[in-house]
Write a structure and sequence with these properties.
The complex is a heterodimer of chains A (about 325) and B (about 500).
Chain A: H1 2-26, H2 30-50, H3 54-78, H4 93-108, H5 120-123, H6 126-137, H7 142-150, H8 152-173, H9 188-210, H10 219-237, H11 239-245, H12 251-271, H13 286-317
Chain B: H1 7-25, H2 28-56, E1 59-62, E2 73-76, H3 78-105, H4 111-130, H5 134-153, H6 159-189, H7 194-204, H8 208-224, H9 233-240, H10 243-269, H11 271-277, H12 280-300, H13 305-325, H14 329-360, H15 371-374, H16 376-390, H17 396-410, H18 414-440, H19 454-472, H20 475-488
Helix pairs in contact in B: 1-2, 1-4, 2-3, 2-4, 3-4, 3-10, 3-14, 3-19, 3-20, 4-5, 4-10, 5-6, 5-10, 6-8, 6-9, 7-10, 8-10, 9-10, 9-13, 10-11, 10-13, 10-14, 12-13, 12-18, 13-14, 13-18, 14-16, 14-17, 14-19, 14-20, 16-18, 16-19, 17-18, 17-19
The chains are: A mainly alpha (about 325), B mainly alpha (about 500).
């Protein structure tokens, strides 16, 4: 019964996704489409949650439903609200899309069933990950162990991806500047409501950062949440004030510092001639070393993500508005 | 600490952290210096790694102390070592060249970020070429791709933005396809390590999931490698990007994609499955041949020399794909040799164009009349690169074409050998057009001897002379290539 219920929920959520996609193609009001994109991400997050991928759901909700929506709104401010529908549709696209979809369905046909206990992913490496996480790393969240330790090199790479994204946006858009006239109007109710919320968001961000070893979350999610607190402040109180709290010019350096914290933590083990990112070398007690290593690299990730997200937001929102006729 | 044992990871981590340092210091001169030092370190590391590989065959480095397949392993055999040499060698020359070229072409506020992105591209491409893990390839592909898009967009021509956007869309589709392919393989085997995958794949090879994975991976990598008909992003991306970027990309980026293609096809799926059973060898040969002819003919019709060379790159990729499609030992050797040699020729040619752009802010054929007299050293280097591209004996280009034609004749495919000869004539035509304008047309009134920075000339000439060196002494390139082919085909030397 329970299993069936999950299936029903999954089908409903997938149906939602399909409906949202068609709606966003059809609708020409870009503001509505932006909202639909946010809902799309949120429904995806629910779907991930239902698949027991809590960490992924967390990231999708924070980045997809939260931050990307803000960015799209920022971009929307620079253009018109309604789509110019007179553009041409390339007919070549249709067969390519159909072919790709067909190939995906063809490939999925031979997949093991969802939740099949005999599927290779449950037998080949997963038992070792579970056993070694308990033995050698000793933290409850195995996802964090895999991300930060077993495959810490990938996560280092992903942190650099975030850093590169920030550098790329900065190269294209610059840091932007704030003009007085585009500041939001003073709205007492918003001010009163948002002020305590920001405090809670920042505390929650810190919780997600440091509780990643035990529950869902970690540096990526924490960085986004922490940044969203500042973005909220900037939206309600005006960017001039936000930029006084954290100046735009310091953000690229903070992002670089995050990458350096991760990288230097990895290099520490080279001193005792252990491989890059071998946290056992960080302390006389290997398990303690693993804990310390994960704490440090997560801090690097959190810092890099936080500053890059805020940097991208500043770049977008600091653009001058050109009014098209 | 023993530096030598950690070279496989340091060759990636040093440029990555250098990129972060550039942003931290936020100073133009020091950013350049950091880039140069990091490039020299990578070159030093790759030379050492090649020597170690020749002694021990394969270097394995378990990152984090977790042995593969649990952790990520770096795995360097002769093929990786060859790629590292191409990448880090080009990187050193490009870094020397960059100082003056960047000063001229890139807005002041973006110069630090330019070096940062250049280092990230370098580190990303090197990262792809040292890892033994399929997902790790994707991660480093992302690093190099994002930075590449940003670098292309910095071209002073407004069309650079559109070219970058076009590449961004195509490249992202390619990367997504690669990720889908890796995901499908993971579902069927439960592992991401290439060595482990190659052992576990045969059991499940006869499933629709693995066939689909093969298709997605091949098309995804094909986009990145500008394999015909997925090459549309390349001509604009090369033509409108800053000189430093087009030089580095032309010498390395598509080669790395071809490396990934070879790695997936031969090491991961195995020659039997990918080339003969699928049967990808025929597809490769057909696409390769069309690419050679189509690219060469398109090159003839370009009025912008940079764009012309970009189309020529599509043709050169065709040579490499055709050689891989032969699925034979001489074929693979020819492919690897051409990866190496093509980097030398295109590096030279694009650098020479960068110097011309430095003086005339244009690479249109029309500005190049009489340039053989006004910029003699630059044009002489261009001539050497051009001769190498045509395949004149005594240049590097001759060696790889010779091996390709021999491999084709070995397989009794003489019509295709004829195609190579026709393509050489076409190359002669489009390079000849430039030479004709440069040497046999008078310079416009008032244009006299043009001064160019010495550092740029030095880098250009090292590139140009290496065409001749590796054309006369092919021991190094040939030695590593054949060792790599033996390892790929599972023959122990």
């Amino acid at each position: 019964m329970i299993a069936n219920l999950e299936l029903v929920i999954d089908i409903c959520l997938l149906a939602f996704l399909i409906m949202i996609v068609f709606a966003s193609i059809k609708i020409t009001d870009l503001f509505a489409v932006t909202m639909l994109f946010g809902i799309f991400s949120f429904v995806s997050a629910l779907l991930f949650l239902d698949l027991d991928a809590v960490d992924v759901a967390f990231t999708e909700a924070a980045v997809g439903a939260g931050f990307t929506t803000v960015l799209m709104l920022s971009a929307l401010r620079l253009t018109t609200r309604f789509e110019n529908v007179k553009h041409r549709h390339s007919l070549l696209g249709l067969p390519i899309v159909i072919l790709t979809g067909a190939a995906l369905l063809y490939g999925v046909a031979d997949f093991p069933n969802m939740g099949d206990a005999n599927a290779p992913i449950h037998h080949h490496l997963a038992p070792d990950f579970i056993r070694l996480t308990q033995q050698k790393i000793d933290i409850p969240n195995i996802v964090t162990a895999v991300l930060a330790s077993f495959r810490g090199y990938d996560t280092f790479g992903e942190t650099v991806v975030i850093f590169s994204a920030g550098a790329a946006v900065l190269m294209l858009l610059g840091m932007g500047h704030v003009e007085r006239k585009q500041e939001p109007e003073k709205n007492l109710i918003l001010w009163v409501v948002v002020k305590p919320m920001i405090a809670l968001i920042l505390i929650f961000g810190l919780y997600v950062q440091f509780h990643g070893d035990f529950g869902a979350g970690g540096g990526f999610q924490a960085g986004v949440i922490f940044a969203s607190g500042f973005i909220l402040y900037s939206l309600v109180f005006g960017e001039t004030y936000a930029r006084k709290v954290i100046p735009a010019t310091i953000l690229p350096r903070l992002s670089a510092l995050g990458v350096l914290i991760y990288g230097v933590t990895g290099l520490m083990s080279l001193i005792s001639n252990k491989p890059f990112l071998d946290y056992n070398a960080l302390s006389s007690n290997p398990v303690g070393g693993q804990h310390l290593g994960i704490l440090l690299v997560e801090a690097g990730v959190g810092l890099a993500v936080f500053s890059t997200i805020l940097l991208i937001y500043y770049s977008f929102s600091g653009r001058e508005v050109i009014h098209y006729e | 600490m023993n530096l030598m044992t950690h070279l496989p990871v340091l060759i990636v981590v040093v440029p990555l952290l250098s990129a972060a340092l550039c942003v931290l210091f936020n100073n133009r001169k020091s950013a350049w210096l950091i880039t140069l030092l990091a490039s020299f370190f990578c070159f030093y590391a790759s030379i050492n790694l090649i020597q170690i590989v020749q002694e021990v065959d394969v270097i394995i480095y378990s990152v984090g102390g977790w042995e593969a397949p649990l952790g990520i392993e770096l795995r360097i055999d002769a093929l990786n070592a060859l790629m590292l040499l191409v990448l880090s060698g080009s990187a050193v020359l490009v870094s020397i060249y960059a100082l003056k070229s960047v000063e001229k072409e890139i807005p002041v506020q973006n110069q630090v970020l330019f070096y940062t992105a250049l280092l990230l591209v370098k580190a990303g491409l090197i990262g792809i070429c040292v890892t033994g893990d399929a997902f790790n390839i994707f991660v480093f592909l992302e690093i190099s791709s994002i930075s590449t898009y940003a670098l292309i967009s910095l071209g002073h021509d407004r069309r650079a933005l559109h070219a970058s956007y076009q590449y961004l869309i195509m490249g992202t589709i390619g990367a997504t396809f690669i990720l889908i392919g890796i995901g499908f393989m993971y579902v069927m085997t439960g592992t991401l390590n290439i060595q482990d995958l190659s052992q576990r794949l045969p059991v499940v090879a006869d499933t629709s999931a693995i066939r689909a994975a093969f298709a997605f991976l091949t098309i995804g990598v094909g986009i990145k490698a500008a394999m015909l008909p997925l090459h549309q992003w390349l001509p604009n991306a090369y033509a409108y990007s800053p000189s430093v970027v087009s030089t580095f990309l032309a010498a390395t980026a598509t080669k790395v994609a071809i490396y990934v293609l070879i790695r997936f096809q031969l090491s991961l799926f195995g020659i039997e499955f990918s080339l003969l059973q699928m049967p990808f060898n025929k597809i490769l040969m057909i696409l390769g041949t069309i690419g050679i002819l189509g690219g060469s003919v398109s090159a003839i019709y370009q009025s912008n020399v940079k764009r012309m060379l970009a189309y020529s790159s599509v043709a050169q990729i065709g040579y490499i794909l055709l050689a891989i499609g032969l699925a034979s030992e001489p074929g693979f050797t020819a492919a690897l040799l051409h990866i190496f040699n093509h980097a030398l020729m295109k590096g030279t040619l694009f650098m020479a164009l960068g110097l011309i752009a430095f003086r005339f802010a244009s690479t249109e054929l029309s500005v190049m009349s009489g340039i053989g007299k006004t910029m003699p050293l630059t044009m002489a280097a261009f001539l050497i690169g051009g001769l190498s591209l045509i395949g004149v004996p005594g240049t590097a280009g001759f060696i790889s074409k010779w091996y390709l034609v021999t491999a084709l004749l070995d397989a009794s495919l003489w019509p295709l050998a004829l195609v190579i000869l026709i393509a050489s004539v076409l190359t002669l035509i489009y390079i000849g057009r430039v030479i004709e304008v440069a040497y046999f047309q008078p310079a416009p009134e008032g244009i006299t001897q043009q001064k160019v920075p010495k550092s740029m000339l030095v880098a250009l000439w090292i590139f140009a002379l290496s065409n001749i060196y590796f054309g006369l002494y092919s021991d190094i390139s040939l030695g590593i290539s054949s060792l790599a082919v033996n390892q790929l085909m599972g023959v122990t030397p």
